[in-house]
Specification:
Layout (H helix, E strand, L loop, with lengths): L4 E3 L3 H8 L10 E4 L4 E8 L4 E9 L17 E3 L10 H6 L1 E6 L1 E8 L2 E9 L5 E10 L4 E10 L10 E3 L7 H7 L13 E5 L23
Parallel strand pairs: 4-10, 5-10
Antiparallel strand pairs: 1-2, 1-7, 3-4, 3-6, 6-9, 7-8, 8-12, 9-10, 10-11
């Protein structure tokens, strides 16, 4: 499951990491929630390379009657992509990568659910594997984040995690869509730490959401 994440790297960093040339103003977001717009990278046949654009989080299949289905399709399980009508076409023709600096997960504790931030140990941006679609007369474009079984670092928080692609596989995913790439990332890539429960509300969106909570002695 991935229901909230952050993307606060400057555009220059995204251009460097993901090999794109687009330049547009997208403010940092520390608490991206479903139905919000966020940057994604997709392959452009006309440009013969990846391109950066904005899309709505929550995939809306082209055959959907209305956009509310997107609220249920914020994630797509890697193991069943080829079987699900919502994802089959996108898997074949419309793959993408979602830049992220971290994502949030909630752990059940005696005092309630405690949010944790998960990020790369080297603090570099991550690339989630995803799919995108176009819907309706207005050609609304939307995306979903592909999830896989949690690695050992994440298991204490949740049994699922986003597919975090190695940078060397970005082009292969965008251009070929090899499902063999949709596996948990190595355990030692990530670190987790508790953060303030303010992140529970999408209305809160500031850099302090990423601050670690003080650890008990």
């Amino acid at each position: 499951m991935c229901g909230r994440y952050s993307q606060n790297s400057p555009i220059e960093k995204l251009r460097d990491v993901f090999g794109v040339t687009e330049r547009f103003n997208f403010p940092p977001s520390y608490n991206i929630a479903p139905t919000q717009y966020a940057p994604i990278v997709r392959f452009s046949k006309s440009k013969d390379r990846g391109e950066l654009t904005l899309m709505r989080w929550g995939l809306i299949p082209f055959w959907a009657k209305d956009i509310t289905i997107g609220n249920k399709l914020i994630n797509a399980r890697a193991e069943t992509l080829a079987e699900k009508p919502s994802f089959r076409g996108a898997l074949k023709y419309r793959r993408c990568i979602i830049p992220a600096d971290g994502f949030y997960e909630w752990q059940k504790q005696e005092t309630g659910k405690q949010p944790f931030n998960i990020r790369r140990k080297n603090c570099e941006p991550m690339g989630f594997a995803g799919l995108w679609e176009e819907w309706g007369e207005d050609r609304l474009q939307s995306f979903t984040i592909i999830t896989t079984a949690a690695n050992n670092t994440i298991k204490a928080l949740h049994d699922r995690m986003p597919v975090i692609l190695p940078p060397d596989d970005y082009a292969a995913w965008l251009e070929k869509g090899d499902t063999a790439l949709l596996t948990p990332c190595p355990d030692d890539w990530l670190e987790t730490y508790p953060v303030n429960k303010r992140v529970n509300s999408p209305a809160n969106n500031d850099a302090s959401l990423l601050d670690p909570l003080p650890q008990a002695n």
